[in-house]
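Supplementary material to the annual report.
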Amino acid sequence: MGKKEILKTNSYKHQWARHVARKTLQDDLATARALVKDATSRIDNLPITLDGKESVTKLLTKTKEFTGLGFVLPEEGKLKIGIVGAGVGGLFTAMVLDWLNERVQGLDIDYDIIEAAGEERLGGRLYTHKFSEKEHDYYDVGAMRFPNNEIMTRTFQLFKLLGLEPGKGGLIPYYLPDEDDKVCPSYFNDVNCVGYIWNREGLEDPFRINTGLSKKDEIPEEYVVVPKARIVLIGVRLLKKDPAKLVSASLYDFIKDTIEKFDNSRDEIENGESQGDGEQGTKLWKHLMKADNMSVHQFLSSTDNGPDMTRGPGYNYNTIEWLETVTYGTGWYDQALSECVLDELDFATPEQEEGKPKRNFWYCVDGGGQRIARLMAEKVKKPVQLNSQVVAINANVSKRRDPNTYVPMTLDIKRTNPGSKQADVRKEDYFAVLNSTTLPALQRMNLKDAGLLWGTKQAIRSLGYGASCKVAIKFSTPWWQIEPFNINKGGLSRTDLPVRVCVYPSYNISEIEEHWDPKGSSVLLCSYTWGQDAQRLGSLISPDTPDNEEQLKGVLLHNLALLHANEKMSYDELMVLLDKQYETHHAWDWYRDQNMSGAFAYFGPGQFSNMWEEIIKPNAFGQLYMIGEAASSHHAWIVGALESVIRAIYVMFEGLNSNDPNYEAYTEVMNLLSQAPQEQQEGELPSGLPFYPLPEEMPKRQDSTERGAPQTNDPAVKDKPLTYPAAIASLSLIESYFELVYSAQAA
Ligand SMILES: Cc1cc2nc3c(=O)[nH]c(=O)nc-3n(C[C@H](O)[C@H](O)[C@H](O)COP(=O)(O)OP(=O)(O)OC[C@H]3O[C@@H](n4cnc5c(N)ncnc54)[C@H](O)[C@@H]3O)c2cc1C
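Predicted assembly:
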């Protein structure tokens, strides 16, 4: 890609998420009308007549005698919130609520943060395993690296607020590839190469990938099968090109096409030719739907995808396998194209400007990522209730006869004494529950009376989660940092062996440590796996790691020796060295972590456009919200968890405001959360607070609303459409009443 061709990744990603949210709100509106119609046809004392064209406001006007306006508090401005989970999402919720409490008069928010795990696992997927309390004796089992790109702004604002500044003891550079591209090995098809090989003169199939394949199955010398492609692939010799860059290039055409379609649709709306459902708007939606229903594999193998979808590059099976093997986990490309593209964009590292000093874009936390959670827990006003598992959520549906009285959500909380292991269950009432657990962890609670809508139940059960394992070995010296390896500035190596990816630490390296000790013990993240590779390695991981893991240890040392053997140190010599220097190890399978059952959301084809809305919308009469990384479009990043929190709190206040538009505190909260972001200086670490603005992925207006036209968040105002957040809050109320109360009555 030339310099001018850099895509505005941020706008693309958010436009897509916003578009999906807006379109699916219209589907929800249709569902709500159908629910009302169905209930009224079967219940005599529900005299509601619909013409099937009602807007959200109109539908609410027609139904409010039976639903009220929802969001009824025991006292104006007084909220008690149950926050389930103390990962970054749960802890951030408490920080936002503290911040609002301090600033807004007339607001009295109380909350509990309820966490199933004990002190050692505060932070959820912010998890650092410490082999001892010695300074660098750790590795990050969960989140470990943070790119300073536009999408991650809120993450860095949070770091700043927590006092994590660049420098030792704070944020230190994370070296994603090895800095000089000279020392990290790669090992595929039993061929070992060292350093970045893809720019080498005379390079021909370095890993002999085409050996033994018939002409038809070979990765072709040149791809010229896409005559109309704008991508830089024409004539590219695939076995000479960095596979990671090739994947980006392969998706480039699709992303560019999507942006063009967004622009055309926007122009159509701005020219007054349509409100989003004109010719260009329809083209855009068809394109997005096709893309979302395709797997990455399908797209890469496709050529002509019809008039609504970008042509694919037409790769053969082996080419796609090769790209997947070198860049992601086995089976990863069976997931949705949309998910892969969104992930690709989250990883986007801004290009270095020519002639200017090299800037750092990737960071990690010195001391480990779990420090983020510990600093957050120190900052929040109320202590986390540890060893406390939410085992049931109850929306008290049977008490909702009078829609204008306060009905709480009730949580059953099982507290286990970590010493005696004795447990007791207590009930606690809250106005609203913000659940930050993974969807699998939520699914196993007793949700029978949780007030969940059918679509949300489906989403909780079916949304895809990726598998991931990490294994670190503590060696008696940092052998990889010294002769003959010299891998002393981070980086990673890749292989098709079971360990798949070996990550060299960016901490405890001679580059940044004044007293770096070449003879001291050191930790190497020797295997980071995803997808099927993680499932397979996970079968060797025991719950009492490192015990009962002889087979795993054998595989790790053997793979490390194969990967690192070179002309100066043979495989056999390395096996002796590694065996001698091995002190202990630690292995983690995120699918077998009982409080997770999955590493991060990774949606399958069709799930983003069909199911995402189901977890971002409120349930249980507007009193239950799904937050956390799955409930955002930034899956597998902590920024996703942060954005989901702002969305949920904002929507909840829209609901409160709908019920009580004259209570100023609610409007003030909405103003605070939606204020303009602080201007950022390019290249510097972001400044400002992480509590605003609203996430860009959340629409501000409904699909049928003209851009710039006046809107309201008060459903009593009849001549203006409701804002998107107010509409979603109102719809949740209507759907809850008619799906959970009246349909049940009619059944
Ligand atoms: C292997 C791996 C690598 C990653 N790498 C990065 C990275 O480099 N950079 C990045 O930004 N992000 C990364 N991520 C993603 C990031 O870690 C997550 O997006 C983020 O930490 C999720 O936070 P959360 O609050 O949504 O969920 P969680 O952290 O999962 O928090 C949910 C909490 O709920 C608790 N819980 C579960 N059930 C119950 C219950 N019944 N009652 C009470 N509590 C319960 C859990 O114990 C947990 O503490 C990575 C994740 C993984 C797994």
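The longest strand covers residues 522-530.
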